[in-house]
What we know:
With 150 residues, this protein is of the alpha+beta class. The chain is built from two helices and eight strands.
Amino acid sequence: xxxxxxxxxxxxxxxxxxxxxxxxxxxxxxxxxxxxxxxxxxxxxxxxxxxxxxxxxxxxxxxxxxxxxxxxxxxxxxxxxxxxxxxxxxxxxxxxxxxxxxxxxxxxxxxxxxxxxxxxxxxxxxxxxxxxxxxxxxxxxxxxxxxxxx
Length: 150
């Protein structure tokens, strides 16, 4: 019998095939986890932006607008002119936001329905690759986190 050292080509192919299968399984699982993290992260960023909009209205003592674009790729705070702060969902996490909305916050930090603003609570949904997370934008300028999907 001959002394065998090293591995054969067939053994090497088997190791590579098993590694490729395991890597494919891990890659799809991390993709789902990245999508779930992205929608949660976008929801949290929007909650922070809505809190900053309310605080800005109270600090400056006049109307401040919180807007979400029609295509759902960004939200911003403004005083009717150029944006004070912009949150880009397409750059942040490739997340889409619905619905399009405008909330006008008065000097006391309360939403004012008379300036083209939403009058009552609005469900805001963040989606990416079948994953979603929701929250509710309240007339008092607060954002309450809601459920999230698969």
